[in-house]
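User: Okay, second chain of the day. Same drill as before: sequence in, structure tokens out.
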Amino acid sequence: MRIPLAAVLLALSLPAYAQGSAEAAKGKISMCIGCHGISMYKTAFPEVYSVPMIAGQSPEYIVKALQAYRAGDRSHPTMRAIAKGLSDQDMADVAAYYGGAGKADR
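Assistant: Same drill. Structure tokens below.
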């Protein structure tokens, strides 16, 4: 069976995301809810910063943001430290939890 070149190129251009599990994330989000689960929350380190609510955010965006923190492309030191401890599967699970249709439990 021959696979059309266009199908191969399309498959190669799609980002490789691990399939996330919102259920699995329930054991991984304790580090998130302390800041991202509080409406209007601001951190004071390294500067005063309004912490975004991530419930309902695009799962792809959450994964890309966490990957950028892990790689050092984003600079918030707390998020960099947290992201460095997450596997790709952890990131996908957290993204599924916060970005999923059911949104985060409140």
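The mean pLDDT is 84.

User: Thanks, on to the next one.
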